[in-house]
Amino acid sequence: MPYLHSPLSQSIFLVVMGSSLLVSERSYAETVVIGYEDAIIDASSSPLDKYKVFNGWTLTANNATSRNIEVTTSNLVLNGSTVNGDGTEPGVSLYGSTATITGSTINSNEIGLRVAADTGVGSAAQVFSSTITGMTRGATVSQLSRLEMTDTTLLANGADGIGLEVFNGTASAVRGTIVGGLNGIQVFDYFNPEDTLINLDSTTVVGRTGSAIVVENYDSGATHTQINVMNGATLSGGNGHLLEVNGTSTATLRVSDSNTHLAGDVIAASGATANVILDNQATLTGRLENLTSLAINSQAQWVMVEDGTVSDLSMNGGSVKFGEPTSYFTLSVGNLSGTGGTFFMASDFSTGQTDQLDVTGTATGNHQLVVASSGADPINADKLYLVHTAAGDAKFSLLNDRIDLGAYSYQLASTETGGATDWYLNPESKTISPGTQSAMALFNTAPTIWYGELTTLRSRMGELRVGTGQSGAWVRAYGNKYVVSASTGVGYKQNQQGLTFGADAPLPIGDGQWLAGLMAGYSQSDLDLDRGTSGTVNSYYAGAYTTWLDAQTGYYFDGVVKVNRFQNKSDVNLSDNTSAKGSYNNYGVGASAEVGRHITLKDGYFVEPYAQVSSVVIQGKNYDLDNGLRAEGDRTRSLLGELGSTVGRNIELASGQLVQPYLRAAYVHEFSKNNEVKVNDNVFNNDLSGSRGEFGAGVTMTLTQKVKAYADLEYSKGDGIEQPLGGSVGVHYSW
């Protein structure tokens, strides 16, 4: 095999001819030319060799080390190999060739990998699990050529280095890293009609001091650069720019899935064309400067960081967020199109500040405004304008048809003048806000809780005359459902569940018919208000009672004193689908006195008229929701009078057990009227007054000589309140 010596360059060439050759065990050759047959090099080859491949042959390097490799209209395979380029030549150059590079390392003082065309034929390189490093460029891709990288790192370490430079070619990276000392990726439209395509899949692109991606042009050709970012890929520029489009270039950035969330700016120079498409829950946070078009689709979102201008905005199920609630921006749009768009905005009635959407051209489609709610009240009653459209038939609505601001909620209104339409918050449409409703309900519900825990003597302890007539211990489980109408000040539903324990003993006074006892218990009440707002009250209580029973005349007296500790929590669902929470603790004390007579009739029947007076005072309390709403409740007072009668029959079973079914009816009147609640210094009144009718049915049954069980069902309806269902079951043990 001949060795050729060039007297001009003083370089040594090895020309490979004839059959396929294994090149090994040489340290004296500087450039190996492979032009007549395939060649294979391995770890035993000289690491100082350079290789030039042409004429359609293939160079395969397995775990080899070499210097520069140049391939023209041929093929290159690198497996676990290292190329250390020197001088100004790329580490690996492809001209109209193909390359498969796996698990390899390429280093160069200039360009790590060049993928270029030769006489109208492009190159194609596939790179897997490799590292390519250059000083000025990590890799370059020219027209008609394609670079595909998987699990690969591409670096340009020079201060002005470009990680990937593309001249009207195609480049893709999957699970890779592309880093440039200046820019991560730079695209040149260079006197060529071919478009540029860049796909970034699960890949990180970094421009250390410049931009993540820059698109330039050397001429005024009508080429287009398409950049697709997907599957959690990230773009980062040291200057804050994700994408710069300069000169007269045209570029489109498409961000296309829920795992991809970009933060940075897209900047287009005057005369350039920049388009952004956000799809499938992708997000972009940053400035869009001189953007030609923006399309936001399928729950994707653009988050503004300052005022913005877009020539054409298309909204198809996407959204624009006008920064944080404390910042107020204006978005100027030439034309607005699409449907189902959402604009997240903030407004401050107290200062007149608001985010604004200004459409200077034509606006079409149906879109929604989500205005941030607040716990603070407006100071003035001026209209607050949110949207202006110069022309078109676009329609705007508020999420949940309202905005909650402090004590009140407001609705959206519009006015049309000469084809232009303005949309604003109307202070004349105010209604009580969910935060106010929750405060009023919590302050209002304590008396209902107190009475639900108490009830009448029979409901609380069963019929003491059944069985031995002696006292002992008892336990009662109960549940009540109330529906309170808005006529009381606020409407809500209340579900109460609880358990009471008690024990008593005869008093050693009089004729022995006096009983004295202690009781304690717990109940939980869940409040259900409009619009998803809810509350919870945990009540812990203890009390003392005394009961007098006269077996001969049937007269009885029952007196109860009870002290409660209430733990109150509210969870307010606001108009912008956020929530506010608040909590407070307070105490209540009350007493009840009941008198009645058990009248025995024929055949075991009886009638038992009774009268009851109950009163409770609930401690006033102030508390705040975490959105800034302030609630102040005065002492809540209740004075309840009840007149009723029970009718029933004693039935003795063959087993000797006694069953006592009964029916009860009563008239109840609440005398208390004014219980003021302040919300942000707005005064509201919880009016508890009114009358209602109560109906009940129950049964008491002796199980043994000392044990009896009882159950009771109740229904009531009246002014402002209905109890569609109430029930209790209990056991009384006498000793």
Overview of this structure, please?
With 735 residues, this protein is mainly beta. Helices cover 4% and strands 61% of the residues. The chain is built from 2 helices and 69 strands. The chain has a 20-stranded mixed beta sheet. Strands 1-2-4-6-9-12-15-18-21-24-27-30-33-36 form a 14-stranded mixed beta sheet, with no helix packed on it. Strands 52-53-54-55-56-57-59-62-64-67-68-69 form a 12-stranded antiparallel beta barrel. It is elongated. The chain starts with a strand and ends with a strand.
At a glance:
The protein is mostly beta strands and about 725 residues long.
Number of helices: 2
Uncertain stretches of 5 or more adjacent residues: 1-13, 15-29
Kindly name the structural category.
mainly beta
Q: Which of globular, elongated, flat, extended, rod-shaped describes the shape?
A: elongated
**End-to-end gap:** 120 Å
List the helices and strands and how they pair.
Blueprint: E1 3-5, E2 12-16, E3 21-23, E4 31-34, E5 39-41, E6 50-53, E7 58-62, E8 65-66, E9 69-72, E10 75-79, E11 82-84, E12 92-95, E13 98-102, E14 105-107, E15 111-116, E16 124-128, E17 131-134, E18 137-141, E19 146-150, E20 153-156, E21 162-167, E22 170-174, E23 177-180, E24 183-189, E25 196-201, E26 204-207, E27 213-217, E28 225-230, E29 234-237, E30 241-245, E31 250-255, E32 261-263, E33 265-268, E34 273-278, E35 283-285, E36 288-289, E37 291-297, E38 301-303, E39 308-316, E40 319-321, E41 330-339, E42 341-345, E43 347-348, E44 353-354, E45 356-362, E46 366-371, E47 384-391, E48 395-398, E49 403-405, E50 408-417, E51 420-432, H1 434-454, H2 457-461, E52 472-484, E53 492-506, E54 514-528, E55 534-549, E56 555-573, E57 579-597, E58 599-600, E59 605-618, E60 621-624, E61 630-633, E62 636-649, E63 651-652, E64 658-670, E65 676-679, E66 682-685, E67 690-702, E68 707-718, E69 721-734
Parallel strand pairs: 2-4, 3-5, 4-6, 5-7, 6-9, 7-10, 8-11, 9-12, 10-13, 11-14, 12-15, 13-16, 14-17, 15-18, 16-19, 17-20, 18-21, 19-22, 20-23, 21-24, 22-25, 23-26, 24-27, 25-28, 26-29, 27-30, 28-31, 30-33, 31-34, 32-35, 33-36, 34-37, 35-38, 37-39, 38-40, 39-41, 40-42, 41-45, 42-46, 45-47, ...
Antiparallel strand pairs: 1-2, 43-44, 47-51, 49-50, 50-51, 52-53, 52-69, 53-54, 54-55, 55-56, 56-57, 57-59, 58-59, 59-62, 60-61, 61-65, 62-64, 63-64, 64-67, 65-66, 67-68, 68-69
